[in-house]
Write a sequence for this structure.
């Protein structure tokens, strides 16, 4: 099996979010997929097989080192990058079929790739003590957005200074926690923590922006927003609101191209 490692939502290596991409001829069992993702030890490994049914070009799945996830932005971007740049996909649009997020579309956009993802709404909730303890500082607002908690702070410095308690976050009733605030050079900044899924802090999280873009679009009265995820590696993207969809626009670069050697009975 071929394997690629791609830095997503960046235009240079050693930045953005690294994802492994493994093209497959057919699906092995889930234990094998999870074992490969665990061995890669990146926040996400994407696997895809050719569609074959005319409904989509490829069927796509994503795994952290611990679990399969319902949606992943940076590994979808990485998969599209591999298909466009390394596997000779000739059309400008790739249709991915996914079991948990429906059809996702990736389109060439100059030197970037535009991802068409479902938007995720948010419902206000009380700021609980366990959440404050887990993040080490109290947010101004908290929302439940899909399987995540969305915590809004007053300024970028507060988000940068969060020192999360991984055990505390893992004990919360959520897949992960998004921390966000207004930006200085960007419309908003964010960080994302999901230790329960094997990702203590994700460098750049496309799926989180399906929640962030609708929130900030409503708050700022804008349809097109610039975003900066202020992790140690950092990454940037443009978010565009399109009704019930969010378009995430970003670049990607290949770091590694190789081959997996796995015995059939391993």
């Amino acid at each position: 099996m071929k394997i690629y490692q791609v830095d997503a939502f960046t235009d240079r290596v050693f930045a953005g979010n690294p994802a492994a991409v493994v093209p497959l001829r057919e699906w092995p069992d889930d234990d094998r997929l999870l074992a490969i993702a665990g061995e890669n030890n990146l926040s996400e490994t994407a696997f895809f097989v050719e569609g074959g049914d005319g409904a989509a070009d490829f069927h796509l799945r994503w795994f952290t080192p611990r679990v399969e996830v319902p949606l992943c932005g940076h590994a979808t971007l990485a998969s599209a990058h591999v298909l466009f740049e390394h596997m000779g996909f000739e059309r400008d649009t790739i249709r991915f079929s996914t079991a948990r997020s429906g059809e996702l579309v990736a389109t060439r956009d100059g030197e970037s790739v535009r991802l068409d993802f479902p938007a995720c709404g948010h419902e206000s909730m009380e700021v609980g003590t366990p959440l404050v303890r887990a993040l080490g500082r109290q947010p101004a607002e908290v929302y439940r957005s899909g399987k995540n908690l969305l915590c809004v702070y007053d300024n970028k410095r507060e988000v940068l200074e969060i020192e999360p308690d991984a055990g505390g976050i893992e004990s919360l009733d959520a897949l992960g926690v998004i921390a966000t605030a207004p930006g200085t050079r960007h419309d908003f900044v964010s960080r994302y923590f999901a230790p329960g899924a094997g990702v203590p802090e994700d460098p750049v999280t496309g799926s989180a922006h399906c929640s962030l873009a609708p929130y900030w679009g409503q708050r700022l009265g804008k349809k097109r927003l610039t975003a900066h995820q202020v992790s140690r590696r950092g990454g940037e993207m443009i978010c565009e609101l399109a009704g019930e969809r969010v378009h995430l626009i970003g670049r990607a670069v290949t770091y590694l191209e190789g081959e997996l050697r796995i015995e059939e009975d391993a």
The chain has two domains: 2-117+250-259, 123-242. Residues 123-242 form a domain with the Diaminopimelate Epimerase; Chain A, domain 1 fold (CATH 3.10.310.10). The longest strand covers residues 102-109.
